[in-house]
Amino acid sequence: MIDGSADDDLLAPLGGGGEIVAVTLFFADLVDSTALSARVEPETYRMVVGRYREQVLQVVDRYGGRIGFTKGDGLLAVFGHPTAHSDDARRAVLAGLEIVREVSRLSEHVDRRFGFSVDVRVGVHCGPVYLDRAHHDFTGSTANRATRISGLASPGAVVISSELKALVAGDFALRAQSSPQTKAFDGPVIYHRVLGERSPIE
Q1: What is the sign, positive or negative, of the torsion defined by CA atoms of 175, 180, 182, 188?
Q2: One GO molecular-function annotation for this sequence (predicted)?
């Protein structure tokens, strides 16, 4: 008879503990980075991507977020943990807009010096994640959703999920858009392009 206790141990809770926390996440992704790396000198590519990452890190820090993880030339930022603010959703969107502006300026310099341009797309989403305190890591569909939402953005754009719209519609001018059905989603997705921050008198 085979003892199933060993298999049961595989599904036992891991040590270190964790908790469910509500956060806002954005994923900033360099557009067509794979194709760019194939046609640009490695040292030039490394320098440009390094500068792009510095810009993202600086902006995220300025708005009170932190980098959760990197995926290729994309960076996932977390707003709402370990320090939560009442306006974390707004901070995340503002950070996304500033990153788009900073990368646009970087692209102008790159084009003048090296003859090519760079662009970024940003997707922002909110929801619960499981925080692994032992490894300072988090998991859950919210992070995947933020990454997928960013893939719907056109170059140089910030887009947000419908869930986030409920939190920031009063702060930003938005344009609703619908995606065709893709492998990343079960069906068409309504999302919103951020056109800019609303003025106080709007």
Answers
A1: positive
A2: adenylate cyclase activity
pTM score of the predicted model: 0.84
Task: State how far the Cα of 38 lies from the Cα of 51, in Å rounded to an integer.
Answer: 19
Q: Phi and psi dihedrals of 34, rounded to 5?
A: -65, -45
Residues 54-61 have a mean pLDDT of 95
Residue extents of the structural domains in the chain: 18-158
Residue 115 carries which DSSP code?
S
Nearest CA to 192 out of 177, 180, 173, 172 is that of 177
Whether CATH 2.40.50.140 fits 18-158: no
Burial of 155 (0-12, 13-18, 19+ CB in 10 A): middle
